[in-house]
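Two proteins were folded this term; both appear here.
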Amino acid sequence: METTPDLHQPPLNAMSKETIETLVSELTHEEDWRRMRATAACVAGGPRSVQALMDALQTGSTELKKEAAAMLARIKDPRAGVALVELLELDEDGVPNAAATALEQMAGVLDVDTARALVALLPHTPEGPTRQVLTHLIGAIPTAVLPLCDLLKHPNAEAQLAAALMLDQLLDPRSIDAFIDAMGQPAVREIAVGTLKKLSAIREHIDVTFNALRDVEGASEREEARMSTVIDLLRIGRPSVEILLEYLEDEDWLVREAAADLLGKIGDVRAVIPLMKRLEQDKDTGVKELAIKALGLIGDSRPTQLYLDAIPIRPLRVYAMEALAKIKDVGVLRPHKEVFDQLRTDRDGLVAYNAGLIADKLEAIMAMENQTQEEDSEHD
C-alpha cells in the first residue's frame, strides 16, 4: 500500500543542497530526525558550521541561541569565544547561562581575544550573580592573566581594583611583573604588596620542597618522598601550575615525575602540551608513565595519537588505554574503532575492559547516526 507523501515536508534527498545555515536553524526543530540531522551536519561541517552557528548567536531565536552555544561548546572552536562572551550581556531567558556554560567547557582552547573580551566586562559588572559567573569564567581561562595584567594599567582606579582583586584570587606567577609595576598606583598598592608576598611564599615553598626531594637517597625512600611531595604541594592548586611546568623540565627524573603527577591531579589544560612533550621525549619510563596518567586525568583529545603509539609499549599500554577511555570528546576515536574492537579480547584485562568501554561509546554514536539516516530515508 502506497503512503501519501507529506507535502509540507521538504524532501531529505535534497540535504546536500541545503545550506549549513538552514541546517543550523533546525537545531530547535520539533521533529527529532531534523534535530539529529542538524547536529550531525554541525559536527561534520568544519569552519562553515562554526560561522553559521556564530551567526545564529546573533540573529537566531532565544532557543536557537542556546542550542548554538551548546553546539559550539561541543565543537570547541576558539573562534566562537568572543561571540559567546557577547551573549553574557543579553537579557534573554537562559541565553547568558548557556553562553557561560559553553565558555566554561571551552576554557582550555579559548584564546587571548576571548579572555580580553571577558576581562573588559569586569569593571562594568556590578556585584551579584552575573559578576560571580564572570569572575568564575575568567579564573577558568588560562589566557585571562595577561588581559588582567593589562587592565591593571587602566587609568580608571575602579578598573585597576577589579583587575587586582581578580589576579589576587588567581595567584598566577605571570602577574608578578604587572604587580611590581602597579606598586606606584594608590588604588591597588596594598593588594599588589599582599599578592606579591603570597606569590613569593608559593614559589619559596615549592622550591624548598623540590630541593628536599632531590636530596633523598634510596629507591624506596625516594618514591615515598615523591608521594609526600605531591600530597604537600597539591593543596596549592592552580597557582602552582606555571612553576610546576618549569620543574617538568628538571634534570632529576624524580622531580619530573612529581611535577607530572601534580599537573595531572590539578587538571589545568596549560599542562597538556608540556606533558605531551614528556611522554614523547623523556628517557625515563617512570616519567612517561606519570605523564600519560596525568594527561588521562585532564581528558584532552590532543594526545590521542601519542596514546595509540604507546599501546604496543608494555609498561605504558594499560595507562594508554585508560587515558583513551577518559578522552571527553570520544568522537575523535572513530577512525580507530577497529583497533579497539581487536583489543576487546586482549589478554590484559584492563586493556580489554577499556577497549570495550571505548568501542561501546563509538557504537552508540554510530547507532544514533544510522537512526538519523534511516529516518531520512523514511521521510524521502
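Next, the second protein.
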Amino acid sequence: MRKKRLIWILVSILAVIGIAVGGFIMHQHQEKQKMIRIANSDEAKKIYEAHMKALDKNALTTNGIIKSYEINNDNLYYNPMGGMEVTVFVNGDKDLDFQFGLIENDDGTYISAYYTTSPELSKLLKGRKK
C-alpha cells in the first residue's frame, strides 16, 4: 500500500515537472518566432536600408558596396538595456555585418536606437568615400 502511494506521488511530481519544462520550452519558441517576425518585418527592413543608404549612397544597387543583405535569424536576442539586437550580413559575407538595436515606440512602431558596423565593412565603406 505504501509503495503504491509513493509511486503515485513520484509520478505526480514528475508529471508536474514535465508540464513546467514543456511550458517553458513552448514559451521560448514563441518568443523566438516573435523576434523573427519583428526582425523581418517591412518596417525593420526600412530601418536597415535607410542606414545602409546613408553610408553608401548606391547601396542595394549593382554600383554600391552594399549589394544585398541577409538578416541573421539565428542570433536574435533581447538586449538587457532594452530593445532587440539584430545582425544583418552584407553581400552574403559573415565578416561584413551591421548590428542594429531595435526599440519599440509607444505606438508599436520600431526605431533603431543605434547600429554598429564590423571593422571589415567600415574599411570598405571608408575606402569608397576617398
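The mean pLDDT is 92. The first strand starts at residue 69 and ends at 71. These notes refer to the second protein only.
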